[in-house]
Design brief:
Keywords: Hydrolase, Metal-binding, Protease, Zinc
GO molecular function, one term: zinc ion binding
Order of helices and strands: EEHHEEEHEEEEEHH
Number of helices: 5
Strand content: 15-25%
Pfam families: Peptidase_M10
CATH topology: Collagenase (Catalytic Domain)
Bound molecules: zinc ion
Structural class: alpha/beta
Radius of gyration: 19 Å
Number of strands: 10
CATH architecture: 3-Layer(aba) Sandwich
Shape: globular
Protein name: Zn-dependent m10 family peptidase
Length: 237
Amino acid sequence: MNRSIALLGLAVVIGGIVINESDSNYSNNIKTEITSKVSTTTTYLQSKVNNLIQTKQPSQTTSNNTKTASKSQTTSTGQTPILSIMDGFSVDNTYYYHFTKKTPTAVRQVFENAISAYNDTGLVNLVAGEGTSKQNRITFSIYYKDEGANTTSVELGNGGPKLIYNTNDATKHAINHATASINLNYSESVTTSVAMHEVGHALGLDHSDDMNSVMYPSNQNVTQLSEGDIDGLKNIY
Ligand SMILES: [Zn+2]
């Protein structure tokens, strides 16, 4: 059976402020906010704080499940597109990455291959480690999803950014707590090309209709970033 192989993208934006004792930047932001309102009434402050707390909840969950309908395109310059949820946000180019405990060595290896390829561009810096809540992070993992015998398309992996930002920050600086995962139900998932694709999503790249791009929606065993992929990364970082 000549089945096509789909690579999934998962993109989530979380709007709002994170209120966390250990998170001094955000705490300072709240302090600044409160200090600036000190001449107004406590009622106002209380409602403001309540609003901040409410917006902590995820405001939007988007999953571009490309198995059935893939949005793949390139820009007129051949640049690999950027996930729309990244629009307008600035994200630091250093990421701390780690693997969940159950991630087997072979999967770790293909992700490490992908990490090297992205680091070689000099545009991003993926560093082994857990990172903190204030730093960009990528969590690598595995999952098992059986598509059944009659499917024409199987999902080999998924990945995507999760942006966390302070709604009061006019500069729209965001922290990306991204994920990239491989579907171990299919042996062909454990390849550098699939890992490259899912890391691309984690970093904010969308699908490309260029078959030389690692972001082509079905697996072409491409293990090198195309010029378009690099241009896409330059656009984000
Ligand atoms: Zn994809």
